[in-house]
Amino acid sequence: MPCYSFKGHIPVVDRSSFIHPQATVIGNVVIGKNCYVGPGAVIRGDWGEIILEDGVNVQENCVVHMFPGKSIRFRESAHIGHGAIIHGANLGANCLIGMNSVIMDGAEIGEGCIVGALSFVKAEAVFEPRSLIVGNPAKKIKHVTDAMLDWKTAGTKLYQQLPTDCHETMQEVDPLREIPEHRPVQEDFYKTLAELKRKG
């Protein structure tokens, strides 16, 4: 795993979690069970403590950091989308941070919140549980419905299975030079929220 000590702090990672070889985990970081950290992600605990509780995923190209002397925690099943930046903020259980959003220092994202893609959450902003948060600066626009939270939870479960799948099947290979005749077919086992609404 791509883990680095810093001033005597060595990352602690549960064996069930998967840190992609192209990710970087530095210093005072604690990662719980069934967590996924994708390629290009950086979790940088050089100046403070970063705790990922069980079932958290930090996807491709995310950055997690903070000012010196702080401690931040991502509660169980927090879901951080591609390219997001979390700087010195705490995330509640089962929340979703949308792709390329930025969450600033001292912000508190409550349990079951959904932060829309490209949102900017100001420093020290506090959002109550199950807030739907969007914009720049980000604001609560409504309450997260049961259907939205169920959809989010189902998506996070995919990421909680992903560490096991990666441990069991991912390996570095040479590419094929042509498409094989019997190429495996990937399952269509998850729908976007928009697709679910059209069917419902």
Automatic annotation (TrEMBL):
InterPro entries: Hexapep, Transf_Hexapept/Carb_Anhydrase, Trimer_LpxA-like_sf. It comes from the Bacteria. Pfam families: Hexapep. Coiled coil: none annotated. This is Gamma carbonic anhydrase family protein.
